[in-house]
Design a protein that fits this description.
heterodimer, A: mainly alpha, two-stranded antiparallel ribbon, B: alpha/beta, Rossmann fold, Alpha-Beta Plaits, 2 domains, four-stranded antiparallel sheet, 11 helices, 14 strands, elongated, transmembrane (chain A), membrane (chain A), transmembrane helix (chain A), ABC-2 type transport system permease protein (chain A)
C-alpha cells in the first residue's frame, strides 16, 4: 500500500501540481498583504492621528459609559463587558486593532478562502487524479497489475489526503511568512470573540466568550481542512466517473460558484440548505455571521458535508471497481 | 505441452447486443498464437476480457490454473500485456515508468529492471522522459513493462502498429525469441494477415465476435494451396482440366487445387491435347485469401 501511495504522490509531484499551487498561494498572499497594508495606511490617514491608543481609549470609555447607563438588558451588558475586556487587552499589550499581525492576517485569509479559493486549489490536484489515467490510457496498465482495484483507488484517495495536507500547510506557512514581513509576526494570543448563536432573527450573545487567537485559528484551520476534504472527495468522484478533466473542473467550478451566489439569495428557499455548496462557509459560525438560511448551524453544515462526502466516496469506489475499461 | 491460458465459452453482452459470442481456445507454452480479424471483429474486447479490464457476461478465463474472476491477483501476475497503444506516463522517464509499475508487483529488484531494459535494447535512452520517445521506443518500453513480472503469458494487441519496416521485423524476431527461448505463450492480435503468417504458430480467425476457425498456420495454408497454369489456349485447357477438378480463371492463368499426385497426370493430358504449357506454379495462399474464403467474402479492413 505504501508503494502504491508513493507512486501516486510521485505522479502528483512530477506533474508539478503542488509547486503551481504553492506559487499561486504565494502570489495571492502577496497581493492581499499589500492591499491590507494600503488599507491600514488609509485608516490611519482618515483618523488624522497615527496614535491609535487615544482612539482605543476613547472606545473603552464609550463602552464603560454604556455599561453604566440603565435600561440595557443583562445579556447585552455581558456582551459589552467582554468587548471591554478585549479592548483593554489590546491597550495593555500594545496591539493596534486596525493593523494586525501575521496570525490575524492568516485568520482572515482562511476565512475568505474557505468557500472558493481553497476548494479551487484542491481541485487543481484532484480533478485529474483518476480522469487523466483514463484519458491518457495508462488506466489499462494500472488495472492489469496484480493489485485489486479498490487498493489502487484507495491509494489515490490517500494521495489526495496527503496533497490536501500539503495545501493547508502551504497556506499556513506562506500566509504567515509573507504577511509577517509587513505586519510583524506577533499576535498569537490576541483575544477574539466567539460563541455567537443565531436564534430566529436575533443574534444570541449569551455564550459569547474570548479565546486566544491561536486557538481560534486552529479551529478555523480544522474546519477549512474538513471543507477541503469534502470538496476533494466530490471532485474525486467526478474524476472517477468522467474521462475528461475539463468536464470535472467545469462541473465543480459551476457548483462552487453557484454556491457563492446562492448563499446570498436562498434565504426563502429552505431546502437549499441540503446542497453542499451553501454549507461551505463553516468559519462564519465561529465568527458569528448570519447563516444564509435560517436554522443552519455548525453541526448541521458539518453533517450535510459529511453525508455528501460519504456518498461521493461510496459512488467512486463502486463505479471504479465494477466499471469496464474500454 | 501445457496450456497456460484457457478460455471457455467467453461471452460479452452490452445492452441487448452480443458482442462476443462464446469464444473457447487455449494457449500452449512456448507458442505464438495469432488473433486475426477485421477491425470490429471483437479482438480488442476479447483481449480486454483476458486481462480483466472488462468483465465477461459469462464464461471463464483461467491463467496458469488461476481463475481470473475469483483469483484476480494470482492470475494476472502471470500475464504481461499491452492493450492497444503502449501509453505510459509522458512526464516520467522510461526508468521511472518501469519503477512505477514494478512497485505494484509483490516483489521487484533493480536487477530485473536492468535486465528488461537490456532485453528491449533501451539502455541508452531509459533515463529520458517518455515524452521525447519515438513510437518504436514507446512500444519497446511497453514490452519492457509487460515483461517486468516474469509472466508466463504475454498478450500484445497490435504490437507492430505504427512501426516502420525495420521495427516490424525486429518486433517479430523479438516475439519469436520470447516464445522459443523463454518459453512464453504469446498472444498477438492483428488485422494484418502477413504479420500473423510470419510470426504465429497457430491462428484463430475471428469475425463478428466469433472464432471461425483455429488451426496451425501451416495446415491452414497447405489446405488452401493452389496451382497456377500458364497455357497458350485458355479455353481448351480449361475444358480439359474441368473434367478432372474445379478450375478458375484469373489474369490469363488457370487455377486449380494443389494435388501433388495428380499434377503430372493433368499436365500430360494437356500436352497430349496439343496445348503448350509454359508454367506450372504451385502457390501458398495468403491468409487474406483464406479469410475471404472462410468468411464468405467479407472484407478485411
Amino acid at each position: 500500500m505504501i508503494n502504491l501511495v508513493y507512486n501516486e504522490m510521485l505522479k502528483i509531484v512530477r506533474k508539478k501540481r503542488l509547486f503551481i499551487i504553492s506559487a499561486i498561494i504565494a502570489v495571492l498572499v502577496g497581493l492581499f498583504t499589500y492591499a491590507q497594508y494600503k488599507h491600514v495606511q488609509d485608516v490611519q490617514k482618515r483618523l488624522g492621528t497615527t496614535d491609535w491608543r487615544t482612539q482605543l481609549q476613547q472606545q473603552i470609555i464609550d463602552t464603560q459609559n454604556r455599561l453604566n447607563s440603565s435600561g440595557i438588558s443583562e445579556e447585552w451588558r455581558k456582551f459589552l463587558k467582554i468587548r471591554l475586556q478585549q479592548q483593554q487587552y489590546y491597550l495593555d499589550h500594545n496591539i493596534n486593532p486596525s493593523a494586525p499581525g501575521a496570525p490575524t492576517f492568516m485568520r482572515m485569509f482562511v476565512e475568505n478562502s474557505i468557500e472558493l479559493f481553497l476548494p479551487l486549489m484542491v481541485m487543481v490536484v484532484v480533478a485529474d487524479l483518476v480522469s487523466s489515467e483514463a484519458s491518457g490510457g495508462t488506466m489499462k496498465l494500472l488495472l492489469t497489475r496484480p493489485v485489486k482495484r479498490w487498493k489502487i483507488l484507495l491509494s489515490k484517495y490517500i494521495a489526495m489526503g496527503v496533497s490536501i495536507s500539503f495545501i493547508m500547510l502551504a497556506l499556513v506557512v506562506l500566509s504567515y511568512a509573507i504577511s509577517g514581513a509587513v505586519f510583524g509576526y506577533g499576535g498569537w494570543n490576541l483575544p477574539l470573540l466567539t460563541g455567537f448563536t443565531v436564534q430566529g432573527e436575533e443574534l444570541n450573545t449569551a455564550n459569547v466568550h474570548l479565546i486566544p487567537q491561536w486557538k481560534y485559528l486552529l479551529i478555523e484551520l480544522g474546519l477549512a481542512s474538513f471543507v477541503a476534504i469534502v470538496v476533494g472527495t466530490l471532485t474525486f468522484m467526478l474524476s472517477v466517473i468522467m474521462r475528461s478533466t475539463a468536464a470535472v473542473m467545469g462541473i465543480m467550478l459551476a457548483a462552487l460558484i453557484s454556491g457563492a451566489i446562492l448563499s446570498n439569495m436562498v434565504s426563502s428557499w429552505e431546502s437549499a440548505k441540503y446542497l453542499f455548496m451553501v454549507n461551505l462557509r463553516l468559519t462564519d459560525y465561529i465568527s458569528g455571521a448570519a447563516p444564509p438560511i435560517a436554522g443552519m448551524t455548525l453541526g448541521f453544515s458539518i453533517g450535510v458535508l459529511a453525508v455528501w462526502g460519504l456518498v461521493a466516496l461510496i459512488v467512486s469506489f463502486f463505479v471504479f471497481i465494477t466499471r469496464d475499461v474500454y | 505441452m501445457t496450456d497456460t491460458l484457457v478460455v471457455q465459452n467467453l461471452r460479452k453482452t452490452i445492452g441487448k447486443k452480443e458482442i462476443i459470442k462464446g469464444l473457447s481456445f487455449s494457449l500452449r507454452e512456448g507458442e505464438v498464437f495469432g488473433f486475426l480479424g477485421p477491425n470490429g471483429a471483437g479482438k480488442t474486447t476479447t483481449i480486454r476480457m483476458l486481462v480483466g479490464l472488462i468483465k465477461p457476461t459469462s464464461g471463464r478465463v483461467s491463467i496458469c490454473g488461476y481463475d481470473l474472476q475469483r483469483q484476480f491477483a494470482d492470475a494476472i501476475r502471470h500475464v504481461g500485456c499491452i492493450v492497444e497503444n503502449p501509453e505510459l506516463y509522458p512526464y516520467l522517464s522510461g526508468w521511472e515508468n518501469l519503477e512505477h509499475f514494478a512497485r505494484m508487483l509483490p516483489s521487484f529488484s533493480k536487477e530485473r529492471l536492468q535486465e528488461v531494459v537490456h532485453l528491449v535494447g533501451l539502455q541508452h535512452r531509459i533515463h529520458d522522459r517518455v515524452r521525447t520517445y519515438s513510437l518504436g521506443m514507446r512500444q519497446r518500453l511497453g514490452i519492457a513493462q509487460a515483461l517486468l513480472g516474469q509472466p508466463k503469458v504475454l498478450i500484445l494487441d497490435e504490437p507492430t502498429n505504427g512501426l516502420d519496416p525495420v521495427g516490424i521485423r525486429e518486433m517479430r524476431e523479438f516475439i519469436r525469441l520470447l516464445a522459443e527461448k523463454e518459453k512464453l505463450s504469446v498472444l498477438v492480435s492483428s488485422h494484418l494477415l502477413s504479420e500473423i503468417q510470419l510470426m504465429c504458430d497457430r491462428v484463430a480467425i475471428m469475425a463478428k465476435g466469433e472464432i471461425i476457425r483455429i488451426d496451425d498456420v501451416e495446415t491452414l495454408l497447405k489446405e488452401q494451396a493452389r496451382v497456377y497454369w500458364k497455357v497458350d489456349s485458355l479455353e481448351r485447357a480449361k475444358n480439359i482440366l474441368a473434367n478432372e477438378t474445379t478450375v478458375l480463371e484469373t489474369d490469363g492463368m488457370l487455377v486449380t487445387g494443389y494435388e501433388a499426385s495428380q499434377l503430372a497426370v493433368w499436365n500430360e493430358k494437356l500436352v497430349q491435347a496439343g496445348i503448350r504449357v509454359s508454367e506450372i506454379q504451385p502457390k501458398l495462399p495468403t491468409l487474406e485469401d483464406l479469410f475471404i474464403e472462410l468468411t464468405g467474402g467479407e472484407t478485411i479492413d
